[in-house]
Write a structure and sequence with these properties.
The complex is a heterodimer of chains A (423) and B (161). With 423 residues, chain A is an alpha+beta fold. Helix content of chain A is 36%, strand content 17%. Chain A contains 11 helices and 13 strands. In chain A, α6 packs parallel to α7. In chain B, 48% of the residues are buried. The chains are: A alpha+beta (423), B alpha+beta (161). At the A-B interface, α9 of A face α4 and α5 of B. Chain B: InterPro entries: 2Fe-2S-bd (IPR002888), 2Fe-2S-bd_dom_sf (IPR036884), 2Fe-2S_ferredoxin-like_sf (IPR036010), 2Fe-2S_ferredoxin-type (IPR001041), Beta-grasp_dom_sf (IPR012675), Diverse_Oxidoreductases (IPR051452).
Amino acid sequence: MIGVYTNTTPVDAYRGAGRPEASYLIERMMETAARQLKVDPAELRKKNFITAFPYQTPVIMAYDIGDFHASIDAAMKAIDYAGFPARKAKAKASGKLRGIGVSCYIEACGIAPSKAVGSLGAGVGLWESAEIRVNPVGTIEVLTGSHSHGQGHETTFCQIIAERLGVPISQVSIVHGDTDKVQFGMGTYGSRSLAVGGTAIVKAMEKVEAKAKKIAAHALEASESDIVIENGEFKVTGTDKSIALPMVALAAYTAHNLPDGMEPGLKETAFYDPTNFTFPAGAYICELEVDPGTGKTSFVNFVAADDFGRLINPMIVEGQVHGGLAQGIGQALLEGAVYDDTGQLVTASFMDYTMPRADDLPSFQLSHTTTLCPGNPLGVKGCGEAGAIGASAAVINAITDAIGNNKLEMPATPDRVWHAIHG
Amino acid sequence: MSTVKLTVNGKAVSVDVEDRTLLVHLLRENLNLTGTHVGCDTSQCGACVVHVDGRAVKSCTMLAGQAAGSNVTTIEGLAKGDELHPMQAAFRDNHGLQCGYCTPGMIMSAVDIVHRHGGKLDEETVRHELEGNICRCTGYHNIVKAVLDAAGRMKVAQAAE
């Protein structure tokens, strides 16, 4: 091993971490192949989609489920793919080069089965933990090792609990990001929070509910198997007998009338180690125009059709996709660490490093197709990085389509695009 | 050291600061108004935007002394008690924020944009005007939606007054 000092900027995993690079390479090759074969790029992808599941890949992962045709069909419909040649001709008449670019991605999230990552050399297990505390007044605290820095765990995780128990979301609170309180956790990365962290919450809830049902059955003098949970109440099915969650919680802590041998309290912990990765997939199509005089790219439309499995909170999911797309587009068009001939970083502040601004981006047209993930009880796959994974290839495929030159490096700045057009 | 007297969120304040102190540091460190953020320190990102005499200003670019005698409004002064400003409400309703770091500056800039353009805002104008505020989370999609939504709400609120 050789260690060297360098004056270049340190690098680390970035949104998508490895999948954007892989996806970009594959989707640029698909586009290039389609052009060389003179086959419609969308058709070539369709011919090569995997349609039978599970599908064992040569690299550990076994794709569990997906419907890639549904995604690309949704994207093609949203952008009116069939109408593109007419739009291109019209743009040409006004001196603009119009292009369309497809990018289909699949990625691996739900990181990760500890055994699988152990075989790849990881030094830790990648499970997640959850603790559910039902307080004596019936409020619920959820401690998760998957912390949030704006992904909205406080909302999505609460929704899971509120939906299971039929209680108002305001009755549930999330504790995260505090190692004084949350003893164990592996964190938030790899679009794993809901698939792994959320499932740990479900597993802990199953334990809480099982104990609460025993307490309720004892109080109602009914059989445990007859107890159902509805609207925040434990009901004896087929009767009007019921006991509200706060009363069950209070009974758990007063411990005056618990089933023989039961421990007081209503607090459970679960560790969840996934059995497989999850595989979000989707199709992105970008339509844009290039000004041949300046090399400047302007978006006409950007559509994204993703399959994230079940959506717990579609608004939050869409927000994640918007942000991911912006990062993927930023990489395609604007962002790059540039050094001059003497090794001086000349993109050291936002004055020079082009973070995407509002006027660099279009509004996005999102849609979702759904195949439920069979690997976890929530049926979720993960949505945090998809946009950044699929967007860059769609943009570069569209620009190279517009200018009729397949050689173009990212970031495709106006200078680079102009030279790709004019040599 | 100098004594700077100004009005912040409707309250008269008098603060002794070093002459080099920037307005954002007076707000955050002397007045503990930490809703105004410092993002880049180079006047690029807009996380530090506040209103000085009704105009949006990047408070990391203004000396505290330059704000003497001015009326400064920060994100903390925008709501009327428990009632959010229409721009704040629109950001919440449209999911116009994720991590929240850029949000105070975004909102202060957006209020200024609506004031300057009145009801004549369209998406292109909003995107152009937000050029000085950077967001890494939202892709701006829902921020733009929120500003357009708020422009409508502010017009209605103005008509009602």
